[in-house]
Write a structure and sequence with these properties.
DNA polymerase, domain 1; 2 domains; 6 strands
């Protein structure tokens, strides 16, 4: 049996924590609020991002203004910054290895399909993925089914086995999804959330870069 590797995108494969920080600070500046640092982002980041904005002190009116118009304030700042972001260390090698082994790689993200696919093409890794599961548009982001439900339905439709499916993410939500669906959870540090918060979620494995992922997959009986 070949494994299925399910990846989150932002902060997990794409090294865009700095882009998130710069975007958040641009939003804070717009409302006359002081800038924050990456440690603060990692202590408070959650999805939807309105949770982050509230937790760093923005008012309900300010959060509503950011959410208005399909989060244009956020996306119009973030996307040009994301266009300059690279992959996380070791990610490209892992994706190519999985592709050569004819195993499946899937992205399950809270991002939007079109800009996500454009990033895959920019980085030359679009051929590494069987599918991209994400929101259809800015208008539907966080308003239709959750990424966990999206993945659950996809697994049912494609007869994917939980015991051979790994989910890799940089936030506790991926560990929660793994626990709910019976998957193997791998949390990666250095993304949007602090290592302490990742450990508190109790994933099956924690890695600091992608060089550490394949030994875990092999230890579970795959890719010998």
């Amino acid at each position: 049996m070949r494994p299925v590797l399910v990846f989150d995108w932002n902060g997990t494969l794409l090294d865009d924590a700095s882009a998130l920080l710069q975007t958040t600070n641009a939003i804070l500046e717009r409302f006359g609020r002081p800038a924050i640092d990456l440690y603060t982002i990692r202590d408070h980041c959650d999805v939807p991002l309105s949770i982050l904005f509230r937790s760093i002190g923005m008012s309900e009116a300010e959060v509503a203004a950011v959410d208005r118009d399909g989060s244009a304030i956020f996306h119009d700042t973030y996307e040009p910054l994301a266009d300059k972001a690279d992959l996380r260390v070791g990610a490209r090698a892992v994706l190519e290895w999985v592709r050569q082994e004819a195993a499946s790689s899937i992205i399950v993200s809270n991002h939007i399909v079109a800009p996500l696919v454009a990033q895959l093409q920019r980085l030359g890794i679009d051929r590494c993925f069987n599918d991209v599961l994400a929101f259809e548009s800015r208008a539907t982001q966080y308003k239709t089914m959750s990424k966990g439900e999206r993945l659950r339905r996809y697994m049912e439709q494609n007869d994917l086995k939980p015991e051979s499916t790994f989910i890799i993410g940089d936030m506790p939500v991926e560990t929660d999804i793994a626990r709910s669906l019976g998957l193997i959870s791998v949390a990666i540090t250095g993304g949007f959330v602090s290592e302490a918060r990742l450990r508190a979620a109790k994933p099956d494995h924690i890695i600091h870069n992608y060089h550490e992922l394949l030994p875990i997959v092999r230890a579970r009986g795959f890719f010998h």
